[in-house]
Specification:
Elements: H1 14-17, E1 25-30, E2 36-41, E3 44-50, H2 52-55, H3 65-75, E4 84-88, H4 95-98, H5 101-104, H6 107-124, H7 130-133, H8 146-159, H9 168-186, E5 193-196, H10 198-208, E6 216-221, E7 230-236, E8 239-246, H11 251-261, H12 270-276, H13 286-293, E9 296-299, E10 302-305, H14 314-319, H15 325-351, E11 355-359, H16 366-373, E12 380-382, H17 392-407, H18 430-437, H19 440-445, E13 446-449, H20 454-462, E14 467-470, E15 484-488, H21 494-504, E16 513-517, H22 521-524, E17 541-542, H23 545-550, E18 561-562, E19 565-567, H24 573-586, E20 590-595, H25 607-616, E21 621-624, E22 627-631, H26 632-635
Parallel strand pairs: 1-4, 4-5, 6-11, 11-12, 14-21, 16-19
Antiparallel strand pairs: 1-2, 2-3, 6-7, 7-8, 9-10, 13-22, 14-15, 15-20, 16-20, 17-18, 21-22
Helix pairs in contact: 10-17, 11-15, 13-15, 15-16, 20-24
């Protein structure tokens, strides 16, 4: 193939390349932090997975080659049969992928980025070369190979841009580059490769990925995007119309750099800051809160800077000298909640749209979502699984097909189907399970029960056992929803210490989460409205007195809130049967559910991944599809 990155790109004209049949086949690709692929066939997302699940490198930002190959195989689609390949993002550069920024940068590397790259740009008027600053981090051997990457770097240096700037030259160059990479990989016609605006992808996913088909307001909020990092969109009769956009939303950037100020890893540990926040007392964090409030406020639908800092690291480093760590976390969370409630609340009132969808990195903040969910101006809040950039592969598919259908005069609501669940990844392979169990040492070291009844597994949980469950297709995204989960009795507060110290090595202040039967949600959760989004751990809830008793190990110890998976009837029948069996034995309609992984690693994908974690930790038992494997000490409880 002739390498021609940077040549003039074909026009983005969806209606020119859509199949005339109803069997529309679109591959979506998000190539950035936690690179991901998705496949949409005839309006249905049939598969989606992140590259990290295959490479076993958390937040893998490389071209998602294996994820792409998986989704095509899962859908039974040949590359030649694709109507389109939709990349998320028009303004894109590979610098973070080349330096493995998201997967390999330490906290010290992030501090170095501030000192040696951003500070010279923002305060000294210099233009350092990012790839020279981080020459020690360069990975030129990743796909599509050293020769091609060497040429790209030379081209970028000639353009004197980092590749993330918004100028037309860089945008065209990297659109051509991505066309060439996917054409090299799949052999597809480059004319079928298209690009979707970042915020448009989030909005399309928020609306069409949910079961919303009525008129709605869609909000998106990010740290960065293309020309915008915060948008408001009206959807009326299936037609999306953006009513506001800005590239100056401060909240997500504040969260990113505050995470670094607190000695944690930005772009990954923001959830730890959110988990720390409830321990702070309001009277002690008024000083840092006043600092945050002095940056930006809300004026109607507009996000307005009161004072725009030169940068978001050194400014707050100076302002917060001597301020307690928990006070900073508490202040940032309260400020985030204030801004989001005011901005989205104003939009809901102005548009009179009571159905609200929310996506983007800020939509991962379950505590802010909890308050939005309870606002009188909002009837229903919809936050789909993993609403950050990992879902943008699906967003690209939805947005691309939406545009193509609209050009044809077809109502997109009649074609684009909502997600029925988040189990979009590869299934546990029974052949692999049998291969593991065939080892003669396994029978000696473990007690094996094939086709184990739900009552047997529930009994282990009720007796205090901690069980890894790897069953069926894996969940897409950041949350384990039963199929790649570690399960325990949620009544047992001591199990938190057990899991933290013997399995997960998590920070002591971080709460776990429960899975709750839909029939018991009102018993445990305050303000539950039968929300579909509650199935995905994307909205927090205050808990009832009974919830605090039955789910004590799965709620936040300080404010007694939780981010539950409310398991809809029939969505995951085997998992539901297990929880019902546990309920019959204990009266408790839920289990503690945390992701099945070692700290710092991706969630397990295969039977071999699950087996490795099982053997390296103090898990009492492992469920692989229908087989229960118990460590001998667990069987003697």
């Amino acid at each position: 193939m002739a390498w021609h990155a940077g040549e003039s790109a074909p026009r983005d004209e969806p209606s020119l390349i859509m199949s005339t049949s109803q069997q529309m086949k679109v591959l979506g690709i998000m190539w950035e932090q936690n690179s991901t692929a998705a496949l949409l066939v005839d309006g249905h997302v049939v598969a989606s997975a992140s590259e990290e699940r295959f490479s076993r490198i958390k937040n893998d930002e490389r071209y998602p080659k294996r994820a792409i190959e998986y989704v095509l195989a899962e859908g039974g689609i040949l590359p030649a049969d694709l109507d389109a390949v939709a990349f998320i993002g028009r303004m894109w550069g590979p610098m973070y992928a080349l330096t493995r920024h998201y997967s390999s940068f330490t906290i010290e590397d992030n501090l170095r980025e501030q000192r040696e790259y951003w500070k010279p740009i923002l305060y000294e008027g210099k233009r350092p070369d990012y790839l020279k600053v981080f020459r020690d981090k360069l990975d030129l051997d990743q796909y599509p190979g050293r020769r091609i990457w060497t040429k790209v770097i030379a081209d970028v240096r000639r353009m004197r841009t980092t590749g993330r700037a918004g100028d037309k030259r860089a945008m065209d160059y990297f659109q051509g580059f991505r066309r060439d990479v996917v054409a090299l990989h799949l052999g597809v016609d480059p004319a079928r490769v298209r690009f979707v605006d970042h915020s448009t992808g989030h909005a399309a996913y928020a609306y069409f990925g949910s079961n919303l088909r009525k008129d709605a307001l869609i909000a998106t909020a990010d740290a960065w995007g293309d020309d915008a990092n915060a948008t408001l969109t009206e959807v009326r009769r299936g037609v999306m119309r953006r009513i506001y956009a800005t590239d100056e939303l401060a909240v997500a950037r504040l969260y990113r750099y505050t995470t670094l100020l607190l000695g944690m890893k930005p772009n990954e540990h923001e959830y730890k800051v959110m988990g720390l926040a409830p321990y702070a007392k309001s009277k002690y964090y008024q000083r840092p809160l006043s600092v945050y409030r002095g940056v930006q406020d809300v004026d109607g639908l507009r996000l307005r800077f009161k004072h725009k800092p030169t940068d978001f690291y050194y400014y707050f480093l100076k302002k917060f000298e001597g301020v307690r760590f928990d006070a900073i976390a508490g202040a940032l969370q309260e400020y985030t909640e204030e801004v989001m409630m005011s901005w989205i609340g104003n939009a809901a009132r102005k548009t009179r749209l009571r159905n609200v969808g929310f996506a983007g990195g800020v939509a991962m903040n379950v505590k802010a979502n909890m308050l939005l969910h309870g606002m009188p101006a909002i009837g229903r809040l919809y936050v789909n699984p993993t609403p950050d950039d990992a879902s943008q592969a699906m967003g690209a598919c939805y947005a691309y097909v939406y545009s193509a259908l609209r050009r044809r005069g077809i109502d997109p609501r009649k074609v684009l189907q909502p997600l029925s669940n988040a189990y979009l990844g590869p299934a546990i392979d029974d052949v692999e399970v049998e291969r593991l169990l065939a080892d003669r040492n396994v029978a000696r070291r473990y007690r094996i029960t094939r086709d184990a009844p739900a009552e047997t597994i529930a009994r282990l949980l009720a007796r205090g056992g901690v069980i890894g469950r790897a069953v069926g297709r894996s969940e897409f995204g950041a949350r384990s929803l039963g199929n790649r989960s570690i399960l325990a009795d949620p009544r047992n507060a001591e199990v938190v210490v057990t899991i933290n110290e013997k399995v997960k090595n998590r920070d002591f202040w971080m709460p776990f989460a429960p899975t709750v039967l839909e029939a018991r949600a009102h018993d445990y959760l305050i303000g539950y409205k039968g929300d579909a989004s509650a199935a995905y751990m994307t909205i927090g809830f205050p808990t009832t007195a009974l919830g605090q008793l039955h789910l004590r190990a799965g709620i936040h110890p300080s404010d007694k809130t939780c981010r539950p998976q409310v398991l809809p009837r029939g969505q995951n029948k085997e998992y539901e049967a297990l929880i019902k069996a546990f309920e019959r034995q204990t009266g408790v309609g839920g289990v503690l559910n945390t992701s099945f992984n070692l700290h710092g690693e991706p969630i397990v994908q295969t039977a071999a991944d699950a087996w490795r974690v099982f053997e390296l930790t103090k898990l009492d038992a492992l469920v692989l599809n229908g087989t229960l494997i118990e460590k001998r000490r667990a069987s003697r409880r």
